[in-house]
Amino acid sequence: MRFAINHITAPKLSLEQFFAAARSLGLTEVEIRNDLPDIVGTISPAAVKEAAARAGVTIISINALYPFNVWSGDLPERAVALANYAAASGATALVMCPLNDGTKVSFDDLVAALKAIKPVLEERGLTGLVEPLGFPISSLRTKKEALKAIAAAGGESVYRLVHDTFHHHLAGETEFFPERTGLVHISGVVDPTVSVADMLDAHRVLVDGADRLDNIAQIRALNAAGYAGPYSFEPFAAEVHELNDPVAAVKDSIGHLNKAI
Fold first, then answer.
1. Which domain holds residue 95?
2. Which of 34, 192, 194, 226 lies most in the core, judged by the most C-beta atoms within 10 Å?
């Protein structure tokens, strides 16, 4: 399998330490963030590009433009700034997440936002990675709806999907779109007491044998259908972030996944 790693897996590591950790795991594809940790807000894109080149890693995405589907307020300005940063840092894509606060966003507004962001990405040679969020309060829960909007916006050449195993499970989505998928985020939930409807980012850990999200079945289905892109670790749980040796924990998860797949 083609694994990658998101900086949120080990947010206490500096950028250089994170890149070194990826290489120690035999990985060359990484994702950086503008939240936890906020690399975008604290390190110049030139410094990021230099550090990546020195470490021999490729920045496959920056997480994330939010809420991408509400094209108002300061979002246009933030979209341009983040796209500029991505291009200057050597990143190849922007992850784009929808509004997730219980507010409904119309399909027409979603399409309008995709149309508006399209030239921003095209001019900089970037891919927009649209990531539906499966939470009940999300304004865009399914990949099927995202693809419908991308088609309506004429954005097939610019946009691809993020298949997040956590959000796929929460949304109850059964369809896979491997030919339209540019990135897969993987994380597991092992807490036996939390209902699917109540699962939150805080429950997301590294995938092991106690996983409740059917990561193995999802990955097998994607592989069987022809997906050949990266599977990037993206655990949000504090217990993962507090690990003394996150590299060893990721190595164990890679071993589990490789053996199971």
1. 3-260
2. 34
